[in-house]
Specification:
This protein has 205 residues and is of the alpha/beta class. 38% of the residues lie in helices and 19% in strands. The chain has one domain: Isochorismatase-like (Rossmann fold). Strand 4, helix 5 and strand 5 form a beta-alpha-beta unit.
Amino acid sequence: MDPEPDWLQPGAMALLLVDLQQGTCGDAQPLPRPAFDQLFRSRTLPAAQRALALARTSGLEVLHTVIADLTTDGRDRSLDYKRCGMGFPPGSRAATVIEELVPLGDELVLPKSSSSAFTSTTLDYLLRNIGIRTLVVIGLLTDQCIDHTVKDAADRGYRVVCLTDACQAAIPERHRQALACFQGYAQLLTVEQFAAALGSASPAS
C-alpha cells in the first residue's frame, strides 16, 4: 500500500476559503464581469462546494476570510488595497460569504484588509491554537490573495495544499501562471484528487 502523503494529517488539517463573498463573486460586485462569473458558476463554485462538503464530513476545521474593512472609511486597509480601491464596509452585504458556501456552526470568519490572509488577521494564532499543521486553500484570486496566502503559510511552516479547480483568477491565463509560480510552496491537487486522498486516509486516533 502506498504511504500517505506528508500533507495528509487527519485531525490537524483545515480548509481555508479565501474571499468567496458577495463583493467578489456574488451579487454585490462593484463591476459586472460576465466571463468571470460564468466560469465561477460553472466550474469554481461547484468545486468549492465539494471541497467544503468534504472538509465538513471529514472533520477538518473550516475557516473563511472575507475582504472587510474594520473602519467605515477603510483607513485600516493595507496600502495596496488603498491604492487599488479594494475594500468593503464592515457589516455590508459585500463583506458576507455567498449563500452557497455560508459558514455553519462555529466556523470562523475572519475579516481581512490585505492580500495575504495572514497579514491582517489572527489566522496564524488561531491555526496554532487549534493544532493545525496542514492548510488546504481555495478561493479568489489565484494570482493575488491565494498566492500570498499559500506562500505565507509555507513560510510559517504549514504544509499547504491548493485545490486548483476551486480557485480562480480574473482570466484563466493568470490562474495558470499563478499556479506555476507557487507550485513549489504547495501541493497542487484537484478537488477529485483531494477527495481520493481523504478517502484513503487512516482513521484519526
